[in-house]
Amino acid sequence: MNVPLETPALLFSATSLILLAYTNRFLTIATIVRGLKKNYEENETKSILLEIKNLNKRLTLIRQMQMYGVLSLFFSVFAMTLLFIGSNLWGTYVFGLSLLLLLASLAVSFWEISISVKALRVHLSDLIEEAKKHS
Question: TM spans, by residue (predicted)?
Fold first, then answer.
């Protein structure tokens, strides 16, 4: 299989956008954690601790997503370098590795999103129960 030099370059824009989205998720969760920490210091409740634990897990997953995304970009650039110097076989293998790392990043992203959705559903169920009590 012969991979042209331009093929790994296609990952640049996609990977950059993904990393930007991951960074935004990280910053949002970091802001929420800071707010919850302040709230916990005022109202030491178990539910806040559970929420902080959930957010801590999500931060760990986002760090992994970013790591795999950056490695994907790194190996994509390395593949381009190998293809540029004429090492087509190694360039193809390294590009394949960069695709696998991008897949790993997306898989961890899916896992993090599913945790986020479960946490939101817990909040919604609490609100629904509260609404039923008032109806």
Answer: 12-33, 67-86, 92-111
